[in-house]
Design a protein that fits this description.
It contains 10 helices and 9 strands. By secondary structure, the chain is α/β, with parallel strands linked by helices. The chain has a single domain, classed as Phosphatidylinositol (PI) phosphodiesterase (TIM Barrel). The structure holds SN-glycerol-3-phosphate and calcium ion.
Length: 255
C-alpha cells in the first residue's frame, strides 16, 4: 500500500528526499510556490506544518504566531482564515511579493496529480487544537490521498491518536535530543511507523539497527549541510528532510 515510502529503499537504491516546508531555501516556507518548487526539483515528497484558524480551517504555516512569517502579530488561532488571507506570508522573501497562506486542502489539490509523499506535521504541541487529528484524516480521505500522506508530530499524544482513529495511517514520531530507548518507546507507546529524529540522533551507536529491530523507518530533519546529507545517505535513512531537495538528491543518488 505504501510503496511511495519504501520502494526505493527496498530496491537498495537511495534515501528519499522530502522538501522541508517545501523547497524553503528557494521560496517562502510552507507556500504553494515552495511545494511547486519541490516537485520541480525532483523531490520525492514534501514536509509541511498544520495549524488551525479561529474558524477551524486547517492552514499550512509553521509557528503558532504569525510574527516571523508575516508583517503582522498574533496567534494563528486568533484569526479567521479570511483575516489571514489579507496578510503576506512571504517569510521575509520580499521578491515574491504578496504570498498567501495555503490551506491544507490547497496543498493537497496542488500535489494530487504528482506522486509526491506528503508529510503532514500536526503542530498540536502548544495549543492542542481540539479535533485537529480527525480533521486532517477526514480531509486526506476526502481527497483520496490516504496512500500518500504520513502524519508526524512532536506531540506524541497526537501521534498515538492518529493510529487510534485509523489504524491504517502512517505516522512518524518527532523528537529533538537524545532519548534513551527511543525506538522501543515509540513503538510501544504510539505504535508509529517511523522515527523522525533531529539529525544528530543518528550518530548514537546502534541507532539505525534499533529502529530496524522495532520495524521503524527513519526520516531525518532538517538536513541542510552537505556533510550531514552524506551522513544520512550513507546510513540509508528512509528519508532526508531538507530545505535544499536538489542538493540532497544529488548526494543521495551517489549512495
Ligand atoms: O518535521 C521535521 C521538522 O520540520 C520538525 O521541526 O520545527 O521545522 O517543524 P520544525
Ligand atoms: Ca515541520
Amino acid at each position: 500500500m505504501f510503496d511511495l515510502f519504501s520502494k526505493k529503499k527496498e530496491d537498495g537504491t537511495r534515501s528519499l528526499i522530502w522538501a522541508h516546508r517545501g523547497a524553503s531555501a528557494y521560496a517562502p516556507e510552507n507556500s504553494l510556490l515552495a511545494f511547486e518548487k519541490a516537485a520541480e526539483l525532483g523531490a520525492d515528497g514534501v514536509e509541511l506544518d498544520v495549524q488551525l484558524t479561529k474558524d477551524n480551517v486547517l492552514v499550512v504555516t509553521h509557528d503558532e504566531k504569525i510574527n516571523r512569517v508575516t508583517d503582522r502579530e498574533g496567534f494563528v488561532k486568533d484569526y479567521t482564515y479570511e483575516e489571514l488571507l489579507d496578510m503576506n506570508f512571504n517569510a521575509g522573501k520580499k521578491k515574491f511579493g504578496k504570498v498567501k497562506i495555503p490551506t491544507l486542502k490547497e496543498v493537497y489539490e496542488l500535489l494530487k496529480p504528482s506522486n509526491l509523499t506528503i508529510n503532514v506535521e500536526i503542530k498540536s504541541g502548544v495549543f492542542f487544537y481540539e479535533g485537529i487529528e480527525k480533521m486532517c484524516l477526514d480531509l486526506t480521505r476526502e481527497m483520496g490521498l490516504e496512500d500518500r500522506v504520513l502524519y508526524s508530530s512532536f506531540n506524541h499524544y497526537t501521534v498515538k491518536k492518529m493510529k487510534e482513529l485509523d489504524s491504517t495511517v502512517k505516522t512518524g514520531l518527532l523528537y529533538a535530543d537524545g532519548i534513551i530507548d527511543i525506538a522501543s518507546y515509540a513503538k510501544e507507546k504510539t505504535n508509529c511507523d517511523a522515527l523522525h529524529p533531529a539529525l544528530y540522533n543518528i550518530q548514537y551507536p546502534g541507532y539505525m539497527e534499533e529502529a530496524k529491530k522495532n520495524g521503524l523507518d527513519v526520516n531525518v530533519w532538517t538536513v541542510n549541510e552537505k556533510e550531514y546529507m552524506k551522513m544520512c545517505a550513507k546510513a540509508k535513512v528512509n528519508a532526508i528532510i531538507t530545505n535544499y531537495p536538489d542538493v540532497a538528491l544529488d548526494i543521495a543518488k551517489k549512495y
